[in-house]
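TICKET: design request
STATUS: open
ATTACHED STRUCTURE:
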């Protein structure tokens, strides 16, 4: 028999937002298990322990996220788990960029509970959900689109290393955090530079930072 229960992870650093999302989820589905996380590292631990998660509701601006890098990582590492971005940002280009990267939906935090429930139900049923007033797609900035394509070519571990580089960590610190050798981290950094077509780790961090800046996220995004 197939699973009838839905396992949903809410990833947001604001307790009030998590509470509202939990209310939306539990009010719409009879048999649902909700897990809450407040930062990216915690989210990764939860998904590693719950590989059959049915949906992630993801805040782009919580601790540990760097621009779209966290979303790119999730799409690479957990391709079978739909991710819906839930954000205070109503920038149309950000919404479209999330969908280009592979998000299954984008829910503005200003939506009412009934609309959130409908959006979540659509994604759980295998659909794609965007605000109805999003309007027609417009051309992406070619430079940013190219950087995203290169970032998407990184393996999940390479993306994790890049995110830690963006936090200013040294190779030995990253090696400790990931429980691997420093030589392994050096190999990952070399591969990152090659895939991003840059010559230094600083340039790699700048490339990732450009994608973060493209979000134009307000406080509490």
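STATUS: resolved
RESOLUTION: sequence designed for all positions
ATTACHED SEQUENCE:
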């Amino acid at each position: 028999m197939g699973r009838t229960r839905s396992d949903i992870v809410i990833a947001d650093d604001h307790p009030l937002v998590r509470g509202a999302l939990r209310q939306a989820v539990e009010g719409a589905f009879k048999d649902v298990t909700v897990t809450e996380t407040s930062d990216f590292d915690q989210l990764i631990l939860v998904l590693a322990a719950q590989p059959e998660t049915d949906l992630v509701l993801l805040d782009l601006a919580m601790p540990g996220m760097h621009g779209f890098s966290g979303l790119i990582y999730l799409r690479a590492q957990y391709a079978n788990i739909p991710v819906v971005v839930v954000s205070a940002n109503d920038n149309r280009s950000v919404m479209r960029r999330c969908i280009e990267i592979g998000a299954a939906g984008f829910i503005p935090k200003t939506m009412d509970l009934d609309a959130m429930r409908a959006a979540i139900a659509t994604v759980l049923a295998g659909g794609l959900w965007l605000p109805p007033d999003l309007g027609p797609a417009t051309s992406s900035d070619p430079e940013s689109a190219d950087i995203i394509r290169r970032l998407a070519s990184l393996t999940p571990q390479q993306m994790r290393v890049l995110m830690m580089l963006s936090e200013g960590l040294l190779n030995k610190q990253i090696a400790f955090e990931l429980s691997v050798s420093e030589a392994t981290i050096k190999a990952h950094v070399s591969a990152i530079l090659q895939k991003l077509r840059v010559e230094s780790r600083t340039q790699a961090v700048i490339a990732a930072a450009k994608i973060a800046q493209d979000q134009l996220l307000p406080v509490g995004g």
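CLOSING REMARK: The beta strands are 6-11, 32-37, 55-58, 83-87, 105-108. The longest helix spans residues 182-196.
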